[in-house]
Amino acid sequence: MSFLTAVTFTPDEQEMQILLSVLGGISEICCLSDLDSAKRVEVLAKADVILARSFARAEVEPKEAAGLENVQLVQLIFAGVNNVPFDLLPSHIKVSGNAGAFAGPIAEHVLGMVLCLAKKMIPGHLGLVNGRFEFSVFSKELRGGTCGIIGMGGNGDAIADLMKKVGMRVLGINRRGISSVDLDFMGTLADMDKVLERSDVVVLTVPLTLETVNMLGRRELQLMKPDAILINVARGKVIDQAALYEHLRATPSFGAGIDTWWSEPGDPEVYKLDFPFFDLPNLMGSPHKADHVPDMMQAAVKMAAENIRSFLEGKPIRGEVNRADYSVSLTDTCCGCGLKGARTLPR
Asked: Which of 56, 80, 155, 204 gets the most CB atoms within 10 Å of its CB?
């Protein structure tokens, strides 16, 4: 075999079988977790590809990054380019996120949140728990409404498909203004105000980058319909936290479903909120688990391995990021991983 792939995590038995099945015959596979420090440095110096979950918690130590001159590709298991130390990696290395790897369960989670908020399920349940039979409150019908998706990448495509199946019109936005899904409207960031104004449901699926930090603030929230539903499965800091709290508090008919938070468990941050969101009846939260379903990791490993094989065979790859768009000055954590960058909507 002419290539070497260094794996930064410990694959389980199924994941290793997948790696061997996809990469066998073209690349040797070496797990860094099985090695002592000296051997790790030796393997990384010879590796052509690094396969990592997200570079979280120092999957490759900063002192080891300097020795990656032979590495041509860093492939992640997760879609986000989280905590990749672009400032430490040699400039020739390509970096690829696992675009769309978790799109199916994320889309289902979004639909579940939308339905719960539209049908006022949690307030109704809590009312019953407390002895109140409140049947006079109207719920919101999705059929015939409009869903705006900010970030039409792999996740956005899957979300659009489900929303169309429940009878919603779908408006999409991404960097190129192009989608593989047939939508009622497809535009770029220049069209965001129009999408916000027209949508009954808005779903955020963009990465956190220099220009997407607080991309939804007071002005943007006020553009939305007073009874709109906002779902965030992107990163917490794409929404201005103070602006969202004030908008929810001042507009009881507005609803928000949040799966990704402004800070989450992990080093250096912990889960915390700057405002008492859970005192509000129009907020629904989940602990960053939209993609957490059985066997999903095996599917993601297979997609990542197939991308590596395409790269080693000289074929086009998915999810490659433009390193020139990224900056080390921006960090955010989710599950202990920092995200860095300038505006890069999903391809």
From this structure: 155
User: Residues 77-131: pLDDT tens digits?
Assistant: 988 776 688 888 888 999 999 988 999 999 999 999 999 999 999 999 999 999 9
Identify each DSSP E strand in the chain by its residue range: 3-7, 27-31, 49-52, 73-76, 94-96, 146-150, 169-173, 185-187, 201-204, 229-232, 255-258, 283-285, 333-334, 337-338
CB 343 within 8 A of CB 325: yes
What is the distance between the alpha carbons of residues 122 and 125, in angstroms, rounded to a whole number? 5
Beta partners for 28? 4
135 in any annotated domain: yes
Question: Which structural domain range is residue 56 located in?
Answer: 3-100+295-324
d(CA 251, CA 254) in angstroms, rounded, equals: 6
Domain CATH code at residue 71 = 3.40.50.720
